[in-house]
Amino acid sequence: MGIPIAVAVLTFLLTSPAAGPADRGRENAAEIWERFKGLSGTWEGRSTKGWTERLRYDVIAGGSVVLETSEDAHPGETMATTFYRDGERLMLTHYCVAKNQPRLEATSFENGGRTVVFTFVDATNLPSRNHGHMDKAVFTFESADRVVSRWSWYQDGRETWFEDIVQTRVR
């Protein structure tokens, strides 16, 4: 094979529209986004730490945001988490009882697109990364009526898994 032919083949391979990892990530983000929108309704959460909560998922803002509200995960407190697309990225912002608002990005899609891992990007009202905050969240869509979320806490240079929450739809 001569040099011009090899260059032409290499150019074709490098510029072909074959689906690469970034494309699959965008497809998975779109699929998971639709799963979050499908959560609309009332749910009950049971934590591995022993408490229960009432959750509500609402699709708001012209279908551009899924708002999750959580009541009584901490007695007398309500927290909220928003899920939304930022271009091709899938994001969440958690409005925490810790009085900060971490933003996490979907960085990994597993289990045939049924599990998504969100990792810390930045936060508001967080003086430094070492102050306590929710740092990672993993959502596994087991069925249309059952979702398991796992949250991690980061503080003083250490990440620890905080708890798992089994969410079931209230009928």
What does this molecule look like?
The protein is α+β, with helices and mostly antiparallel strands. The chain has a single domain (20-169), classed as Beta Barrel (Lipocalin), CATH 2.40.128.20. Helix content is 18%, strand content 54%. The chain contains two helices and ten strands, in the order H-H-E-E-E-E-E-E-E-E-E-E. It has helices at 3-15, 21-37; strands spanning 41-47, 52-60, 65-71, 78-86, 89-95, 101-110, 115-124, 133-143, 146-155, 158-169. The chain has a ten-stranded antiparallel β-barrel. Strand 7 and strand 8 (133-143) form a beta hairpin. It starts with a helix and ends with a strand. Mean pLDDT is 87; it is low at 4-23.
Please tag this protein with its features.
171 residues; alpha+beta; Lipocalin
In short:
18% of the residues lie in helices and 54% in strands.
Tally of DSSP β-strands:
10
CATH class descriptor name: Mainly Beta
Q: How do the strands line up in the largest sheet?
A: 1-2-3-4-5-6-7-8-9-10
CATH architecture: Beta Barrel
**Helix-strand topology string:** HHEEEEEEEEEE
Q: Tell me the CATH topology.
A: Lipocalin
